[in-house]
Amino acid sequence: MQHTATISRLKAAGAPPRLSGLAQWADRHFKWLLVAPAVLLILALSVYPLLFSLVVSFINYDFQVPGHAFVGLKNFERVVFDPVARWSLLLTAWLSGISVAIEFVLGLLVALTMVRSFPGRGVIMSILIVPLFISPVIVGQAWTLLLQRPFGPTNYILTQLLGQEVTIGWMTESPWLYVSLIIADVWQWTPFMFVILLAGLTAIPPNLYEAAELDGVNAWQAFWAITLPHLAPMMLLALTFRLLDAIRMFDTIFIMTGGGPGTRTYTASYYLYTVGFTQFHLSQATAGSWLFLIFTALVVMLLVRRLLKTEPV
């Protein structure tokens, strides 16, 4: 009766009721309970598949061979000693390096042109960034229609301009098949470079250029003394982001060349797709994915370390 009377007095006085042990624990760990669903989702969709793929790379996980026997490093050896794998890695580095370099130069030139205000600037910028919103599959299909012989208009236009018949096999002849892939990639991703570099240019204080102009510095000297040092971090950031995306090139190759002729346009991503989902050697494809991941991580580490050291003058 005394305990009941005490509770009644507490309620009457407006005192909060005493929490149970579980409620007190939930109150102390409330912030962790809020993020727990997201953490569990990340573990289920990212960490578990990653760990499972690591296990698969050490076993015989092949749809054509029964059982999952442990094979050690045999899957990694198959990838390392596969000439197609080595060629695909070399082609990935070559294509991504050339494409990103061209995109960087063109993006910088466009950004330097568009940094000043002029009539119609907004309309032109809106048109320039349209390729960014187009799916790579659509881009590949569009350039296939433009370049494919005999129905594509590219050879006809070149014939009219050069005054002699042009019969280039853009999708079948070397080196034109690589040129066609680079053209499609540059067309789509140059606006990405342009947007990032334009943001960096607009962040440079205008008074620096005004002071340089009073000192008699010409435009070329101002670019090297003012623009380039201040824009260097954004340049490296744009190159890092674009290079990380370029080495995963798959969509346009799948649509435009299908990896052919033969294996000439096999990039790392296309090689892993072919081994895993066409030949059904999943363990070998997984081992190759881990090797490609390590290679990419090394590139990222070097670029990020260089980015952290780069500071505007």
Automatic annotation (TrEMBL):
Q: Name the PROSITE patterns for this protein.
A: ABC_TM1
What highest taxon heads this organism's lineage?
Bacteria
Classification via SUPFAM superfamilies: MalF N-terminal region-like (SSF160964), MetI-like (SSF161098)
Q: Which keywords has UniProt assigned to this entry?
A: Cell membrane, Membrane, Sugar transport, Transmembrane, Transmembrane helix, Transport
> Localized where?
Cell membrane
**Does the keyword field hold Heme?**
no
- Main localization is membrane
Q: How does it sit in the membrane?
A: Multi-pass membrane protein
Chain ranges of the ABC transmembrane type-1 domain: 89-303
Query: What residue stretch is flagged as signal peptide?
Result: none
Q: List membrane-spanning regions.
A: 32-59, 87-111, 123-146, 191-209, 221-241, 285-304
InterPro entries (alphabetical): MetI-like, MetI-like_sf
Pfam families attached here? BPD_transp_1
UniProt family annotation:
Belongs to the binding-protein-dependent transport system permease family.
Spell out the protein name for this chain: Multiple sugar transport system permease protein
Source taxonomy lineage?
A: Bacteria, Pseudomonadati, Pseudomonadota, Alphaproteobacteria, Hyphomicrobiales
